[in-house]
Amino acid sequence: MPKIELTPSARQELRARAHALHPVVIVAASGLTPGVLTELERSLQAHELIKVRVQDVEREEREALLADICDRLDAAPVQRIGNILVIWRPKREEKAPEKKAPPPPNPATAKSAAAFAATARRTALTKAATEQKRGNSRCWNLLQNQPSRSRPSPRGGR
In this structure, are 70 and 136 located in the same domain? Predict the structure, then answer.
């Protein structure tokens, strides 16, 4: 049996809250698979009160299914109308993730990073030296100082 017992007034209030809800999980003919249980757990943690639609299951099996879901998830059955089951469980407090210390740097990665930086520096220096040579050469200066030639228009205009 479920561990959470609801008073009639609490059950009535939960029924009223559940009236506007839509089913968030559908249990088909394959039953309570691990994926379905995981999704039910996530939904209960997020919403506390959920509706579950059951398909292709007879009435007696639906009752057993409702009891099984409530036992496995420590939830309370609120209502069962036809193929719709309403389940409630208060949110569980989530543990704060522990902060892990960053792993020590991998020596191979450090060498790779240093090699990458050295290569980048060499490339930048080579490019700067090439630019400087171009700036000092007389031909380059002459080419830069020449007036630009106007190209004739492809349409033959002015």
Answer: no
